[in-house]
Amino acid sequence: MVAPGAQGERAEGAMGMGVEDNLALVRKGYAAFSSGDMDTLMALYNDDAVHIVPGASKTSGAHKGKESILALYGQLFELSAGTLQIQLDHVLSDGGNRVVSIHTSSLVKDGETFTQTESLLFTLVDGKVSEIQDFFADIELNDRLFS
Asked: Using H for helix, E for strand and C for coil, what is the string for the chain?
């Protein structure tokens, strides 16, 4: 017997999307974000997607809809003076419609390089990103960097 999601068997998530499809979608999104390909990135999102950023920075809040999410990503690059870099470390599935990514972010601010571990929780609906929730190893550092 093969465990669901193990090689050779395809565990089905929401709306027929398999676990591997969901993981691949998140990986594709990271590649698009890192290369600045916002057209490809936004094609992975539902029109009414929400990206939630906790904390008290200029980027905090619930960014609803593709335009608002694009504005958030533009703000991340602007506030980091274009130095923001993301290295995807892990992508994990709940076996259904949620995927957790763990990545390392780094940026230079005032001549100093800052690096921290972050995580995103993706909820997928109809094969697209419906919601993203950010998690930070050091939310106070994130607030300082993006304020």
From this structure: CCCCCCCCCCCECHHHCEHHHHHHHHHHHHHHHHHCCHHHHHHCEEEEEEEEECCCCCCCEEEECHHHHHHHHHHHHHHCCCCCEEEEEEEEECCCCEEEEEEEEEEEECCEEEEEEEEEEEEEECCEEEEEEEEECCHHHHHHHCC
